[in-house]
Amino acid sequence: MANILDAIRKNQDGLLEEWVQGIKSGVRRRDLIDDRELKAQSAEVLAAICDVSADTTLDNLNAPAWQPLKDLLAGLSASRAVQGFTPSETAMFVLSLKSPLFNLIQRQAGSDAKHLFADIATVGDFVDKLALHTTDSFIHGRDQVIMRQQEEMLELSTPVVTLWDGIVALPLIGTLDSARTQVVMESLLQAIVKTNSRFAIIDITGVPTVDTLVAQHLLKTITAARLMGAECILSGIRPQIAQTIVHLGINLEDVITKAKLSDAFRLALERSGRTVTRLEKSKGSALARYGEQ
Amino acid sequence: MTGTVTKTETLPIKDSSDVVFVRQRVRVWATEMKLSLVDQTKLVTAASELGRNTLEHGGGGQLEISEVVNGLRKGIKLTFSDKGPGIPDIKLALTDGYTSRQGMGLGLGGSKRLMNEFEIQSAPGEGTTVTVIRWK
Fold it and tell me: Which fold has domain B7-135?
């Protein structure tokens, strides 16, 4: 088996030429990569294969000697993903090394069929594993992006905003699954204590679907807030959501609901003994004059 | 449950993120069929309820979304199926306020009211299939 590697080392330049030719005629994406870069990448891969110590074998890719090659391919896979290659195109890049290698083995083995078959099986296996490794790296990269985004989504969870002294609002956005609702409920209850609020407005304008689970979460939050002495107002109920809630049979009669956040805010102001009035014109102009001086 | 099926899509329901995806796909189908906003919301809400039932009571299963045509009428048919424990008493399950778990007990009956046609096939040990249609 070691003699395959020897043969590769001796014929490195010829192999590179044949490999690059093969890629150019077949799987190459002319729009994504130019000749020089392609050749440089191929040369790098071949060099990494030739660089391993003399006693390394092709059949155990987990040997530490192959680590540099695996790292190289993982890096290649990541950079190609950014360039817009699909994982199968990257895998094809590696797999296209098979045919020049097979040709080389055939020249070496001559008419010894048994030998030829054994070598081809070994090299085929080796190249397949390398190709799979590039795909694995690609998927691993994707997984990490997804995980990071999931964490970001949880962090993005709804801020509680103070609208006025003693009035807080919680604008809910997106899907309310159990994990997020828990975060949302805790932050609202804590904000009620911290700001000493008597009114909490929960706005569901940004919640696309209100089903029984979401309604149940909302009712639990409202009940918990009430236990803490705060009055809850549910706002942002759109017409289609209102009709759906009626058909579902969810009872929101014990909850104060408003169509718009502004209505809920006005109600909270009224209940806390405040009113919003427009400044009289004369006063307004008097203020303006005052400003000019 | 009459009508000719013109196209279908099958989605797996294996965890709670699948329920989110089910809602999104059903919304896309409803938008493509140009259902009114209220009907879209009703359909998506029912899909959410039934999808969650498939997951929580049926232990996972699948949803088949299809477009059905009956004469001049067009509609969306949703078929939720699982191989879970089945429903021993369908009439009781449809009763508002009855729940075998922690929910509000409105999902099944509510979905029936949200849709135009509603059918449950279930027997203990044989899984559950819920088929609903919302006509345009």
Answer: Heat Shock Protein 90 (3.30.565)
Instruction: State the complex-level ipTM.
Output: 0.81
Per-residue confidence (pLDDT) for residue A192, from 0 to 100: 92
Q: Note every long-range contact of A148-156, with CB atoms under 8 Å and residues 24 or more positions apart, other chains counting.
A: A153/A180, A154/A179, A154/A180, A154/A183
Q: Do residue B45 and residue A213 have CB atoms under 8 angstroms apart?
A: no
For chain A, the average pLDDT equals 84
Option in A209, A212, A244 nearest B103 (CB): A212
Residues A237 and A197 placed together within one structural domain of the fold: yes
Q: Which one, of A164, A173, A157, A250, lies nearest residue A199 by Cα?
A: A164
How do residues A105-128 score in pLDDT, each as one tens digit? 888 777 778 888 888 888 889 899
Q: Which residue of A has its CA nearest to B96?
A: A249
- Same-domain pairing of A237 and A149: no
State the residue range of the domain holding A79.
2-154
Q: How far apart are the first and last CA of chain A?
A: 96
A138 part of a folded domain: yes
Place of tokens 């795909």: A135
Quick check: is A74 in a domain?
A: yes
Residues A88 and A172 in one domain: no
Domain membership of residue A222 (yes or no) is yes
Please answer yes or no on whether B41 and A175 come within 8 Å at the CB atom.
no
Query: The pTM is what?
Result: 0.65
Q: Is A149 on the interface with B (CB under 8 A)?
A: no
Q: Is the confidence at residue A53, as pLDDT, over 90?
A: no
Checking if the pLDDT of B130 tops 80, the result is yes
